Amino acid sequence: MKLPHDERFITYMNLLNKTQWWNSSELEKFQLKKLKQLLKHANDNVPFYHEMFKKLNFKPDNVTNINNLNRLPILTKDIIRNNFEKLNARNYSKDRLISSATGGSTGTPMKFFIDKRWQACNMAAAYRAWGWAGYRLGDKTAFLWSAHQDIQNSKNFVAKAQKFILRDITLDAFDLTDETIEKYISIFNKFKPKFINSYSSAIYLIADYMQKRGINNINPRAILTTADMLYDYKRKLIEQIFNCDVFDYYSGRDTSLQAAECSEHFGYHLSIENAVVEFVKENEIVSQGETGKIIITDLCNYAMPLIRYEIGDLGVPSDEKCPCGRKLPIMKSIKGRILDTIITPDGKMISGMLLPAIFAYYDIKGIYEYQIIQKRIDMLLVRLVKGKDYSKKNLNLFINIIKKKVGDDMKIEIQFVEKIEPTASGKHRSVISEILKG
Ligand SMILES: [Zn+2]
Description:
By secondary structure, the protein is an alpha/beta fold. About 35% of the residues lie in helices and about 25% in strands. It has two domains: about 1-335, Rossmann fold; about 340-435, ANL, C-terminal domain (GMP Synthetase, Chain A, domain 3, 2-Layer Sandwich).
């Protein structure tokens, strides 16, 4: 992991550790104040919103309630792509903008800008959420996810120093074979991580391997899972094999919202200090317990404000109160992050998170949507929706990165399509295995 080089990180983390115990009306007041500041900034400095607010006669000063947001249209990834320049704040010079990208676990990659303040807010909320599992800064942690970010960060001195202070290691989650799992198990044995923070699918595959061989001597204090759907049977096996609690959390790269379980495992507490979260179906807010599209207004991104942004996942809101006493609202479940595992002819198991990670860490332009279907043990069908910057060169780059992971024995077939339809339940499935379940 990398800590933000920004003093606001510590200040903000201390604040969040207090606000989590505020009552609902204090939290709402705090959130409304931040929302109004963001809307004012968007009106004053972001051409896209300036024009929109004018057309709708929407005045940030008149906002009295977060529900007033429903006068504004929902911001889709298509709208963002088509208005990219106009969404950047004019009062931000280029050198303050940090380019980022989301691979879109639902199959829709997107580029956007953030700034240092956003990083501080985002990480503060992430560390608070991990804190609910008992984690404290400096605790020995093994991360099992995409190693791309870590490789990039490990080059400079500050990153190396942080690595020493944070005492963590990163293991590549896309390289799981019997051999590498054995290697990871021996690393766990030597390093003795207090926490394992992993893609749900990767730690499940390791737990499954350990169960089959009767290994159960790795006992961290807790395991944090993220990124792809954590089914109950997977949670149970991981808990049983590692003999500890599993804390699932949700964290996107595109917004500073964090949603995480506390020790009550009552659902996911939403970090509403960082974001206004709405659950919408056909433009209407859904009732408690009903599934809706997750719409986020990120209160921390001033470089490129995302107001009523449709992230592509589905969630179920709840008005139940968590027994832990925190008044941060609860999202009962997250739907839509179903990513099957790809199996290669030589037995390597590759988490479906590989695809979102490729888009997050490589500059691949011109692919608006993707879906990969494993048809046979030696054949992947890659379905793509071309975007306006599409080129053969970008396609080759994308395919070559996949090839490097899946090996030469896997045949890759490309199919261009107009649109990738969600499943009947509204879920987008970007990696589907027809040869394996779960
Ligand atoms: Zn709780």
